[in-house]
From TrEMBL:
It comes from Cohaesibacter celericrescens. Residues 6-39 form the HTH cro/C1-type domain. Pfam families: HTH_3. InterPro entries: Cro/C1-type_HTH (IPR001387), Lambda_DNA-bd_dom_sf (IPR010982). SMART domains: HTH_XRE (SM00530). One of its GO terms (molecular function) is DNA binding. This is XRE family transcriptional regulator. PROSITE patterns: HTH_CROC1.
Length: 81
């Protein structure tokens, strides 16, 4: 997943960077690095676990306990500019 596709995913989901970070279990700063594609001038690769979590969230899976999944609840989240 490229930095551009990651940013497009977040925007398509209607998420602020902070909301995406919370849903993915990351710090907002990591979301910013992923969207920029770099950190301190060095290339940043989005880990497979994050890419898979993006897919799960996109398909409506909010959590998975190994047996059952729960639906994603985006109530109260708003898109940023």
């Amino acid at each position: 997943m490229s930095a551009t596709r990651f940013r497009d995913w977040r925007r398509a989901m209607g998420l602020k960077q902070k909301d995406a970070a919370d849903l993915l279990g990351l710090k907002k700063r990591m979301i910013q690095y992923y969207e920029k594609g770099a950190r301190d001038g060095k290339s940043v690769t989005i880990p497979k676990s994050v890419r898979l979590a993006c897919y799960a969230l996109k398909t409506g899976v909010g959590d998975y306990d190994g047996e059952h999944s729960s639906k994603l609840d985006l109530t109260g989240l708003t898109e940023d500019e």
